[in-house]
Amino acid sequence: MIDGQPLMLGRVQWQLQPWRLGWGLPLTLTSEWGDQMFTSRLSMGLSGLTVLRDVGVNLDTSALRAMFPLYLGGTLSGSFDRIEVEQTGLRQVQGTVYLQSAIWTANSGNMPLGDYRIDVAGNAGSADGIVGKVVTENGALILSGDLSLFADAYAVKLSAGGPVARDDSFRKAVSILATHTAEGFEIVLQGQL
């Protein structure tokens, strides 16, 4: 349950390889519910470090609405070589996130945005942190920039252009986070975790 709403996991399968308990990744976990999918090999250390390898995830963005007030439709997927999570949070990531067939789901009607890729790599404890490079693969909203996550802080620096970025209703919707430019808008955020 997330905020009183059930999150369907569907068919969950796991396989334990006991000979890998002392080292390696002894557990393989898979969850499938229609197009929603999660798969990973993982291990949990006594220190509290959880390591996930060969992670694959696919879900409709509507599944995220239970956690975040998103007005975004589309398919979110990811492929990660490695994710490390410690008790204090995310420690290390290497992989790629895709947002495909993204649409802005406004009361006045849906607005097609495009397809995007975020290449993610780094260590939250390093000077550069975990950095996600945002790239527009195609679409009417052209996004580029960086998302950064540190052990105790975050930073977002995105530039937006294209026909959607100049649309008055869309600009008004993102105005609480964005600064208008001649090409569209910029989002620059930073804060402490």
State the gist of this model:
This protein is mainly beta and 193 residues long.
Describe the structure.
By secondary structure, the protein is mostly beta strands. The protein has one domain. The chain contains one helix and twelve strands. The protein has a twelve-stranded antiparallel sheet, with no helix packed on it. It is globular.
β-strand number: 12
Task: Tell me the distance between the termini.
Answer: 24 Å
Order of helices and strands: EEEEEEEEEEHEE
Describe the oligomeric state of these chains in a short phrase.
Answer: single chain
Radius of gyration: 19 Å
Number of helices: 1
Envelope shape: globular
Largest sheet: 12 strands, antiparallel
Query: How would you state the average pLDDT, rounded?
Result: 89
Kindly estimate the percentage of residues that lie in beta strands according to DSSP.
over 45%
| Number of spatially distinct domains | 1
SSE layout:
Blueprint: E1 11-16, E2 27-33, E3 36-44, E4 50-60, E5 72-86, E6 89-106, E7 109-123, E8 130-139, E9 142-149, E10 153-161, H1 168-174, E11 178-180, E12 185-192
Antiparallel strand pairs: 1-2, 2-3, 3-4, 4-5, 5-6, 6-7, 7-8, 8-9, 9-10, 10-12, 11-12
